[in-house]
Amino acid sequence: MLDFVFSNATKIIFGRGTEMKTGQEISRYGKKVLLHYGGGSIKKSGLYDRIVESLRKAGVEAIELGGVMPNPRLSLVREGIELCRKHGIGSILAVGGGSVIDSAKAIGIGVPYTGDVWDFYSTGRKVEEMLPLGVVLTIPAAGSESSGGSVITNEDGLYKRSANSVNMRPKFAIMNPELTFTLPPYQTAVGAVDIMSHVMERYFTNVKNVDFTDRLCEATLKTMIVNTPIVLKEPDNYEARAEIMWASTIAHNDLLGTGRIGDWATHGIEHELSAIYDIAHGGGLAIMWPAWMKYVYKHDIERFAQFACRVWNVEPDFRNPEKTALEGIESLKGFFLSLGIPVTLTGAGIPSDRFEEMARKATEKGPLGNFVRLKKEDVEKIYRLAL
Ligand code: NZQ
Ligand code: ZN
């Protein structure tokens, strides 16, 4: 196990009706807030009205900026930064999923910065400061409610890039599983894939003697495997929704990565897909994982065999661990298929004519991944394997 420092100060407020605490929580950071949200699901569900009421009761004035799209765009971020400066806004409330939260984070780091906010995403410039950010989470998926990451798409060139800093963790996240009852099956499914992906990116590591975090990862994956089919059948099953919602945070709040080095190639490979084809991030991941695994499993057959046995209950074949490893990969693919989502590029209607461009963009800052280092040629082959 490697040495590590772990600190995650996001306050989690979890359970039924917790959105009514929003005003009280955000008022700790000032009385004027940017209320940031997406394309309208919060108005349809009635959540918007409850949030406005809670802010009013706490004496908080809200300046609104809705319209965040999945795979959030830089242009709206710039609009948000201007709006905050114009109104002297000192804190942000993000009501929605990863896209809204990431957009809010981008605005929050852009306001105190004198340069162009894209610097943080394109050059890896260090984030020193972010406006205090509160979250009301409506979809368990990206884990942005307590992560230090933000992923933004620059429409100019279709670059989807991330900024990361411990200074970008939200101050609090309000998580009421009931708010996720309205999720369409597709969003539930691709959200589950993203949650599992955040675990798997950390699971496939070259660091030895990480049994404790291996087992935390396996428990999180098993929780997803059990509960996702339940909520697809019963969207308003509170208990199963609650398991998934908490798993989404734990999967990406950095606890599972303590003492180990994660891989993250599959995320890099996927971001090129969602940047160009605007597919949901989890939808892209469901396609890229089986392909990545098939390309790299020989690097550590034992770890893949462990994944197969402990996560997917594959019977170990001690004389042929490669067979066990491959059965694990097939189990993962079968599970994603059972959620009703495509696991190939062809199935998702994505053509093969831009693989070279995507592989080039994905590796422009150097090889991808830590478990296996992937050069441009490797990434291109992985796209082909996903066809
Ligand atoms: O926009 P509205 O109308 O709200 O609809 C949204 C959106 O269309 C809808 N939705 C959300 N909650 C709902 C709901 N519909 C009905 N009922 C509800 N309760 O779901 C759609 C998808 O929302 P989005 O926020 O895009 O989903 P997600 O949370 O999966 O976020 C995806 C983004 O997060 C990034 C991804 O790349 C992608 O851009 N990621 C961010 C990370 C981070 N910051 O740490 C890490 C991840 O790996 C990921 O890359
Ligand atoms: Zn992700």
Automatic annotation (TrEMBL):
Q: Where is the Alcohol dehydrogenase iron-type/glycerol dehydrogenase GldA domain?
A: 10-177
Give the transmembrane ranges: none
**What PROSITE patterns does the record tag this protein with?**
ADH_IRON_2 (PS00060)
> What InterPro entries does the record tag this protein with?
ADH_Fe/GldA, ADH_Fe_C, ADH_Fe_CS, BDH-like
GO CC entries = cytosol
The enzyme's main class, written as a single word, is oxidoreductase
Q: GO molecular function of the protein, one example? A: metal ion binding
Q: Where is the Fe-containing alcohol dehydrogenase-like C-terminal domain?
A: 188-386
What's in the keyword line of the UniProt record? Answer: Oxidoreductase
Q: List its EC numbers.
A: 1.1.1.-
Xref: PANTHER family:
ALCOHOL DEHYDROGENASE YQHD
Protein name (database record): Putative NADH-dependent butanol dehydrogenase 1
Query: What is the scientific name of the source organism?
Result: Mesotoga infera
